[in-house]
Amino acid sequence: MGKKMTTAISPTRSEDYPEWYQQVIRQSDMAERSPVRGCMVIKPWGYAVWENITRTLDDMFKKIGVKNAYFPIFIPLSFLEKEAEHVEGFAKECAVVTHHRLEKGPDGGLEPAGRLNEPLIVRPTSETIIGDSFSKWISSYRDLPVIVNQWGNVVRWEMRTRIFLRTSEFLWQEGHTAHATSEEAMELTEKILHIYEDLVENHLAIPVIKGKKSPAERFPGAEETLTIEAMMQDRRALQAGTSHFLGQNFARAQQIKFQSSEEKEAYVWTTSWAVSTRLLGGLVMTHGDDDGIVLPPRVASAHVVLLPIIRKEGDRSAVMEYVQSLARERRDAVYQGRPVVVEIDDRDIGGARGWEWIKKGIPLRVEIGARDMAENAVFVGRRDKGHREKESIPRDRFVGEIGSLLDEIQERLRTRARGFQQDHTCRIDDMDAFTRYFTPQNQAKPEIHGGYAMAHWCGGENCETAIKNDLGVTIRCLPLEEAAEEGRCIFCGRPSDRRVIFAKAY
Amino acid sequence: MGKKMTTAISPTRSEDYPEWYQQVIRQSDMAERSPVRGCMVIKPWGYAVWENITRTLDDMFKKIGVKNAYFPIFIPLSFLEKEAEHVEGFAKECAVVTHHRLEKGPDGGLEPAGRLNEPLIVRPTSETIIGDSFSKWISSYRDLPVIVNQWGNVVRWEMRTRIFLRTSEFLWQEGHTAHATSEEAMELTEKILHIYEDLVENHLAIPVIKGKKSPAERFPGAEETLTIEAMMQDRRALQAGTSHFLGQNFARAQQIKFQSSEEKEAYVWTTSWAVSTRLLGGLVMTHGDDDGIVLPPRVASAHVVLLPIIRKEGDRSAVMEYVQSLARERRDAVYQGRPVVVEIDDRDIGGARGWEWIKKGIPLRVEIGARDMAENAVFVGRRDKGHREKESIPRDRFVGEIGSLLDEIQERLRTRARGFQQDHTCRIDDMDAFTRYFTPQNQAKPEIHGGYAMAHWCGGENCETAIKNDLGVTIRCLPLEEAAEEGRCIFCGRPSDRRVIFAKAY
């Protein structure tokens, strides 16, 4: 190319954010579109991040007594119909199984055969099928609480899909619990939200705001939806995890009853909660830069790549021996309870090799040539810094301090993301300012707008809907940690006792 | 009950083996039938065993360089049709998705709507969808080998189902690899078989025989299927894991080609391999007894249950303190790289409590009452022994030796199962004896017959089919470790150079 390449990814974030996102994922080898409409293939480099997330979260769940279980992928149509709001919420995007075999048709090709008496829905979420089990498992207060979690896949037939963020099939965990009292169920709903916050902030290095959803934005069938909301680099919000207090809605719909200690029959109180592979999209959009993705060390697919630099063929065996011995030294090292994963890349492909690892977002790139060997040093590039900022570090110090180096990167990513979020959050009390805040200043880049607006809201659905229709802005949450404050609704001027977060969202 | 209860499970194995199996699973709380035809619910006690199996196997895979990934659950019908034998093998048991939403029908109920242009099959196995990715990922010998594994669910619409053994949906791992040479692909196929043997023998304590399948019993589309075969207590064989050498069949069907180092274009050589939740059925049927399941310690959901025995209310707090301190002491203990899982059951439900844990198969039951405390001892029941054979062990010794105690149980279960298999394996050279061996002696118990027959087979499909039709007996495998031996086919008398294993099978 005649043009000087200044960034590894084209377009850059500021040139075209949505296209940058697609390119970054493609070039990092995280995932790709599949030939099945709206479904993705999660490639090993992306799946390893998901595995790290699942192991971390699963350990957190187990510490509070969550037990894993597995329920059928198919939900009979009649089950889904039991809770009216719930079926309403999912009916438009269901994959429906209607037949159970294939047979040769008149033209010789295979056709669906063996029609089912009742269609089966590929689970979009499992409240109704798990509720059926709960109704059999629970009869007395002694059987409560029931706290189960399922790791699995779900299907929602989305019309507009984007890898990780919105796909027809995705991976997730869904927790489902039943309790004797409303208080206990609400307490569990909150406890899970705190676990999600811990996971996303401390492991994915994505700062979040905890809050309640407005009634219109709740999960179909929930009485309260708690959420953690993250801000992407295009200043849009991403709902990163939700925990639902379902009241007795599903218990009533599915007859999940128990005998209390006073021998009275009552409906249980249920909750459900989930995070999904969507988090991988959040990771890319929070930390990625114009050279590719940037993986936080605690969930990185690998931590270090060793890159032997062989300038003369005569150096090869000595350099490779040095690299191998360095890899061996690291073999038993542990970072955050998991082994430090070291890759060796000795491919002879020139500068493309280093760029590949930059695009893949590996935290540390370590170049080792004859000169480094002579100095008993390694030449280290950190992914959280510019690609030219490399540093020679004595070998022993590098080996001894790798854990703290990774921690430093982890913390720096989080601090940077927190700063970005704060820089793009604004208290707004005037509808004109609010409208300007959410109106793109540059028509060529419709994605660039203000960010989060902390504004007063009267609690009325009409105001919420009007703002959504006019500006494409929704109430992301009523933040849990925002102090009460007298004010007037940004839209209608009626009294309000707290600010909520408005934003454009994924 | 007036009748003296001698076993916890009714019927016993010898009274009605198939019904015993259903009862044992129900009463152990491992799993249950779901309202969705042929699908199961895996309950926490059963799922924990599956989790232990998956973590153990996943670690083994990672050690040889297997990378996990995830591919779509849906397979377009046209993909499945590409390999003729393959689609033939699965067409009769496919869940077919034909619509992508629900709409109110004329009678007000919801009906499938939004017909798909091409039906999608819920994956029965993923060779064809993963092969599509391989065809995009692979272009040069430098891209090879590709070694990926997927943990997930699959669906095969079985008409007769039995929990764990044959269900419409089950959980499994499926590995898929592509190689530059036939030799390398075959080597990988064998390496995986050895990993499966290690898992099943050393962790599930189920002895297996490794072998090749006869051509008729191969996976649809495979050139060679390697298998591990276990023997259940009704002397039937259970195929516990298979590893397939697919030759270039799928590569040709899906155009998976690469440029060799000599710049020639060639098809890759592929393999696939799987174990599933069927292993849980094998576990139950190998080790279970007339009191319930018996969990091998290395995969047990929990290792020890502490049962406080409170004869006088005044003893309660002292006994509970003793139990809690014992549990604390065990908290950091590790068995086989995982924490020793200790349950405390202080429910006041009399003798039913101990029986519940026996039926659940927990390796060690530890009773602690005032007398044990006074002696600074614990009263230990081992699940591999009779339920009355309990032993008082000094507390310190119990705490110090728990690992070796669990190892002893693990080894004893395997030795016992190995002995059972050997006792019911017979070399047979005469068709009359062969027929008698496989003919139930008691018409009331059609499941009781000889077991494995090591017999000569000419290699002809006719003889194999005739034996299958006459006796319901199939060739389980051509054992890898069986020495060559001249002989004559048990059915037709033609020459044979080795014995194969015939058995009835699940």
Task: Describe the model.
The structure is a homodimer of 506-residue chains. With 506 residues, chain A is of the alpha+beta class. In chain A, the strands form 7 sheets. The first copy, chain A, has an 11-stranded mixed sheet with strand order 3-7-8-14-11-10-9-24-27-23-22, sandwiched between helices. A 5-stranded mixed sheet of chain A has the order 18-15-19-20-21, with helices on both faces. In chain A, helix 2 packs across helix 6 (182-202). The longest helix of chain A is centred in the C-terminal third of the chain and has 29 residues, at 395-423.
Summarize the structure.
Chain A is of the alpha+beta class and 506 residues long. The first copy, chain A, has 14 helices and 27 strands. Chain A is globular, with a radius of gyration of 26 Å.
Helix-strand blueprint:
The structure is a homodimer of 506-residue chains.
Chain A: H1 17-28, E1 31-33, E2 40-42, H2 44-63, E3 67-68, E4 74-76, H3 77-80, H4 84-90, E5 96-104, E6 110-122, H5 127-137, E7 146-155, E8 169-179, H6 182-202, E9 208-212, E10 224-231, E11 237-245, H7 249-254, E12 257-259, E13 265-267, E14 269-276, H8 278-287, E15 304-308, H9 316-330, E16 334-335, E17 338-339, E18 342-344, H10 352-360, E19 364-368, H11 370-374, E20 377-382, E21 390-394, H12 395-423, E22 425-427, H13 431-437, E23 452-456, H14 461-471, E24 474-479, E25 487-488, E26 495-496, E27 499-503
Parallel strand pairs in A: 3-7, 15-18, 15-19, 22-23
Antiparallel strand pairs in A: 1-2, 4-6, 5-6, 7-8, 8-14, 9-10, 9-24, 10-11, 11-14, 12-13, 16-17, 19-20, 20-21, 23-27, 24-27, 25-26
